[in-house]
Amino acid sequence: xxxxxxxxxxxxxxxxxxxxxxxxxxxxGDPGVPGDVxxxxxxxxxxxxxxxxxxxxxAIVYTGWGLVEILTLPQAPLP
Length: 79
Description:
Radius of gyration: 29 Å
Number of helices: 3
Structural class: mainly alpha
Number of strands: 0
């Protein structure tokens, strides 16, 4: 029995699927693999994130501005 057969090598080389190449789950692998893209980059590349973020920021700012304006109005004199 050869030494490579003792350690379970199949002789498939670098393209062997069972070689434990270290994909996204193990932290290794090629940087070009889509699973290796950081969460922040995937979030910032998402158009719908920016759409929702724009509406949320606009709603909070303008609602807050309107509430401040209403609460700081002087009392109107009654006729």
